[in-house]
Design a protein that fits this description.
This protein is of the alpha/beta class and 334 residues long. It folds into two domains: 150 residues, Rossmann fold (3-Layer(aba) Sandwich), CATH 3.40.50; 147 residues, Glycogen Phosphorylase B (Rossmann fold, 3-Layer(aba) Sandwich). The protein is built from 14 helices and twelve strands. The strands form two sheets. The protein has a six-stranded parallel β-sheet with strand order 3-2-1-4-5-6, sandwiched between helices. GO terms for molecular function: ADP-heptose-lipopolysaccharide heptosyltransferase activity. Belongs to the glycosyltransferase 9 family.
Length: 334
């Protein structure tokens, strides 16, 4: 086995949680080269992985929205890069048309994808010469590791390894002598995944009382307005300025605690080994949640709004007690 291509195109949280597949492959086949194909919007995240050898990307999402000639040319150029090497295996752990097309265009006689009932778009099946076994029950992230292992003939061992190394920030996100920072990722891609503002305010007030400083990132005007509502009622809370994906990742890495809904940046916090609490309102924690003993946990049943008491209990769990966490100096990135 010399070279393998992983195809996982979007989105941020899904790509984060797929990264341990690379470490699994490299453990099973020492010396193998593992490349990764992703949408340009998420390529920087894959570049942070110390396990991925080559990142292939194209502005697929941007072209779909704007249909610009420059983006089409970039996509066309990316095909030549995609075909620069012949792969022993192509593993499509996305399972939609765009990932299947990438798998089909790449050079390999062995292209593995999901069974038809497990595909996000059933027409993607045209690209595959082989199929994974039935998608495993339970956590989707572990399921990706199992599927890749089935395709390449190895057993999955141990906890997931993300092997992320962020670029150094121009300056530390927070002053080294400030209180430990708790980041609230209150924003979601869908309204039914939101946790009530009053709940965020109550948890924020409790954490401030325990010695934390609360910060609130945002990505749109509506998210900023909601962040300002929360900050106005939590003493000392800060609404952060508009930040890039890299800047948000560096901010997360400087935090002592991350609390948020089922969103990509909270998955990233877990991958960066931060103390993380993920709140589920309308999606399944057993399928999409994060868990690591005494470090990360998920709350909610996916059908109702978790109470504040559940969030506070989870915060206590991820580091013994939140008081102990507040007593520790937070990481100020140099």
């Amino acid at each position: 086995m010399k070279r393998v291509l992983i195809v996982k195109v979007t989105s941020l949280g899904d790509i984060v949680q797929a990264l341990p597949v690379v470490a699994d492959i490299k453990r099973a086949f020492p010396g193998v080269q593992v490349d990764w194909a992703a949408d340009e919007a998420f390529a920087e995240l894959v570049h942070w992985s110390e396990s991925v050898d080559r990142v292939l990307c194209a502005p697929l999402r941007r072209f779909k929205k704007a249909r610009r000639w420059s983006d089409f040319k970039a996509i066309w150029a990316s095909i030549a890069e995609l075909r620069a090497y012949r792969y022993d295996f192509i593993i499509d752990i996305h399972g939609v048309y765009k990932s299947a097309i990438i798998a089909f265009l790449a050079r390999s006689s062995r292209r593995i994808g999901y069974q038809s009932q497990d595909l996000g778009e059933r027409g993607a099946a045209f690209a595959y010469t082989g199929r994974f076994g039935p998608r495993p029950q339970g956590n989707a992230w572990h399921g990706m590791r199992i599927s890749a292992g089935e395709a390449l003939g190895y057993e999955v061992e141990g906890p997931p390894l993300y092997n992320l190394r962020l670029p150094e920030p121009a300056s530390p996100p927070f002053a080294s002598d400030s209180a430990p920072v708790a980041a609230f990722f209150h924003a979601t891609s869908k309204d039914d995944k939101k946790w009530p503002v009053d709940h965020w305010v109550e948890v924020g007030g409790e954490l401030v009382g325990r010695g934390f400083r609360v910060v609130l990132p945002w990505g749109s005007a509506g998210e900023r307005a909601e962040a300002e509502q929360i900050a106005a009622r939590v003493p000392g809370a800060t609404v952060l300025p508009k930040m890039s994906v890299t800047e948000i990742a560096q901010m997360i890495d400087a935090c002592a605690l991350v609390v948020g809904t089922d969103t990509g940046f909270v998955h990233l916090a877990h991958a960066l080994q931060k103390r993380t609490v993920m709140i589920f309102v309308a999606t399944s924690p057993s399928h999409c949640g994060v868990e690591a003993p005494n470090r990360s946990t998920s709350i909610g049943d996916g059908h109702s709004v978790p109470p504040v008491s559940a969030a506070l209990a989870a915060i206590d769990y991820v580091h013994g007690t939140a008081q102990e966490l507040a007593a520790q100096p937070h990481k100020a990135v140099a």
